[in-house]
Specification:
six-stranded mixed β-sheet; alpha/beta; 6 strands; globular; Leucine Aminopeptidase, subunit E, domain 1; single chain
Length: 179
């Protein structure tokens, strides 16, 4: 089991799946979601413009990738309106991410912390919640849990808050697997 928090952009990630999240009222897309959309030649933005997706809580769309990025696919997940995003909504999104990745049988994926573009976002607590949900979901299949490789993308100024949490969970999960 490998779990780490890094500061890199989505273009450089060599993972099976990249998970991006976006708010209903986030236009244009920001952060890693915006960069991924750019690499997809604006495909996510075009779906929003065409009103085929709107970013409601839990809305999902899966994009296969070609040569534009190193990942095989991108899963975009809606966060709902930014004004309604709080602890409960964050926990729900973490469960949706964990369930989605597990159902896709995905062993190597990356995600930037959902909602991290909001002012005052607590990246340490958010990292812990995400790790808990993913651990809870993947524990049901020991082999998948052992082979899981999760990369959490964070801004450089948030690394000091997220790296120790990610390291703690990686150690804890690997200790569980040794038992």
């Amino acid at each position: 089991m490998r779990l780490r928090a890094v500061n890199t952009d989505v273009v450089k990630l060599d993972v099976e799946t990249l998970v991006i999240t976006f708010f209903e009222d986030e236009r244009p897309l920001k952060g890693q979601a915006g960069l991924a959309d750019w690499r997809l030649c604006g495909a996510v933005s075009q779906l929003i413009i065409d009103r085929r997706i709107d970013g409601y809580v839990g809305e999902k769309i899966l994009f296969p990738m070609s040569h534009r990025m190193k990942c095989d696919k991108i899963l975009a997940i809606g966060l709902g309106p930014s004004s309604a995003f709080g602890d409960e909504a964050y926990s729900r999104i973490c469960r949706i991410v964990a369930d989605s990745m597990f159902k896709l049988r995905c062993l190597a994926f990356s995600i930037s912390l959902p909602g991290s573009i909001i002012e005052g976002f607590d990246s340490g607590a958010a990292t812990a919640r995400l790790c808990e949900e993913i651990g809870d979901r993947y524990r049901v299949d020991r082999k998948m849990f052992e082979d899981l490789n999760l990369v959490i993308l964070v801004d450089s100024h948030k690394l000091k808050d997220t790296v120790p949490i990610a390291t703690k969970y990686e150690l804890r999960f690997n200790e569980e697997l040794r038992i």
